[in-house]
Design brief:
The protein has 187 residues and is an alpha/beta fold. Helices cover 54% and strands 11% of the residues. The protein is built from eight helices and five strands; from the N terminus they run αβαβαβαβαβααα. It has a five-stranded parallel beta sheet with strand order 2-3-4-1-5, sandwiched between helices. The chain is elongated. The two termini are 26 Å apart.
Length: 187
């Protein structure tokens, strides 16, 4: 739906300028996955979509990516340790880049064996940037809908994108109704 990185240029620059294994942390929906997707496309990265270490090693050998990316590493933080061991066992030269939720940063960082200088917190985007995300997704109005999506997204571009996707696929009434119910309940 939205394939443009909005408001994350400095975050992408941090990924490019830092070497070694890295950890991106941030709230759910703040854009960690999409940021790493863009980084992987531009810098020869490979997303891990399987937890079979043998298959991952085979994929590395055949594709030779510069980085292997683990999305939502907090789900299986010990998996990062297995990838580090695999890298050592096959004498590979790739960076591990993982992301996780803030409450799991220490656990994932321990398994990734990174220090605070290799951990980056992805902040929420300001309202004008969320409006740009919404516009990039293909929603230009009405203003009330944009305002509802901006309010509900609360600085999270991933959530804004999901809400836009629902609106564009015919679920606009449900999205607006849910947003109204949340607002009526103080949410």
């Amino acid at each position: 739906i939205c394939q443009t990185l909005v408001g994350r240029e400095n975050d992408l620059l941090w990924l490019k300028q830092n070497t070694g294994d890295l950890l991106i942390t941030g709230q759910p929906g703040c854009g960690k996955t999409f940021l790493l997707y863009i980084f992987a496309k531009e810098h020869d990265g490979l997303y891990v979509v399987d937890d079979d270490i043998g298959r991952i090693a085979d994929c590395f050998r055949s594709q030779q990516p510069k980085a292997i990316i683990v999305d939502d590493a907090h789900i299986k933080p010990e998996f990062v340790s297995k990838l580090r061991k695999m890298r050592e066992d096959i004498r590979a030269d790739f960076r591990l880049i993982a992301n996780c939720w803030p409450g799991e940063t220490n656990n994932v960082a321990t398994n990734l064996k990174v220090t605070s200088s290799s951990i980056y917190e992805l902040k929420l985007l300001p309202r004008p940037e969320i409006v740009k995300v919404i516009n990039e997704c293909g929603i230009g109005g009405p203003d009330q809908l944009i305002q509802l999506i901006v309010d509900q997204a609360a600085g999270k571009p991933g959530l804004a994108t999901t809400l836009c996707h629902l609106c564009l696929n015919g679920d606009i009434e449900n999205v607006v109704a849910e947003m109204g119910a949340l607002q009526d309940n103080g949410g």
